[in-house]
Amino acid sequence: MLSRDDVFGELGIGPVWRLRAAPAAPTPDARPLLDWDQLADAVAHCTKCKLYATRTQGVLGVGDRDADWLILGEAPGADEDRQGEPFVGQAGKLLDAMLASIGLRRGQNVYIANVLKSRPPGNRNPEPDEIAACMPYLLNQIALIRPKIIVALGRFAAQTLLQTDEAIGRLRGRVHCFQGIPLVVTYHPAYLLRNLPDKARAWEDLCLARRTYASLTTES
């Protein structure tokens, strides 16, 4: 059985305690260490951080496993923890509407996941050791899916993937890169439910993601 540090080493980044300080993302040619069945089993039985003791179940993700679009949020909430699927409830309905606005649909060329696979109690912010425990699972997912574009929903997902403390307002509006994959940052649907004026900015971000994807498919 591979340890967390083994997984990080194989995927090209440093030890788990240096995750936030890593100077570069994993190399684009990283290969998955686990297949989908193995990964699902690992998440279901994970005890690598204290969240396993308070969660109902691990939430791996949902959608097309050969998708061009990877949508990443922060962590499961109460509904997700109970149902075992990311982005359900009101935030999930809004995400579905956001995807539909650019011609996408859950499960069709779209895979949806969170950085954390277990729910933090009370939906608190994830802690560094929890991020370190889950990051190998996310990197394995990305290596399996091989998406053409990633959309990071919310500050936590964006800052984790981009290894930065920069505010989401400064991260959105431009195309970043993760493992050689274009990455666009926008607001989390749960945030947008509480801050309706920012829906216009989220629409701009989605249009940027759509243009970026279109340029990729045109080039290929």
Automatic annotation (TrEMBL):
<dbReference type="InterPro" id="IPR036895">
    <property type="entry name" value="Uracil-DNA_glycosylase-like_sf"/>
</dbReference>
<comment type="similarity">
    <text>Belongs to the uracil-DNA glycosylase (UDG) superfamily. Type 4 (UDGa) family.</text>
</comment>
<keyword id="KW-0326">Glycosidase</keyword>
<keyword id="KW-0004">4Fe-4S</keyword>
<keyword id="KW-0378">Hydrolase</keyword>
<keyword id="KW-0411">Iron-sulfur</keyword>
<dbReference type="InterPro" id="IPR005273">
    <property type="entry name" value="Ura-DNA_glyco_family4"/>
</dbReference>
<keyword id="KW-0234">DNA repair</keyword>
<keyword id="KW-0408">Iron</keyword>
<keyword id="KW-0479">Metal-binding</keyword>
<dbReference type="InterPro" id="IPR051536">
    <property type="entry name" value="UDG_Type-4/5"/>
</dbReference>
<keyword id="KW-0227">DNA damage</keyword>
<feature type="domain" description="Uracil-DNA glycosylase-like">
    <location>
        <begin position="60"/>
        <end position="207"/>
    </location>
</feature>
<dbReference type="InterPro" id="IPR005122">
    <property type="entry name" value="Uracil-DNA_glycosylase-like"/>
</dbReference>
<protein>
    <recommendedName>
        <fullName>Type-4 uracil-DNA glycosylase</fullName>
        <ecNumber>3.2.2.27</ecNumber>
    </recommendedName>
</protein>
<dbReference type="Pfam" id="PF03167">
    <property type="entry name" value="UDG"/>
</dbReference>
<dbReference type="GO" id="GO:0004844">
    <property type="term" value="F:uracil DNA N-glycosylase activity"/>
</dbReference>
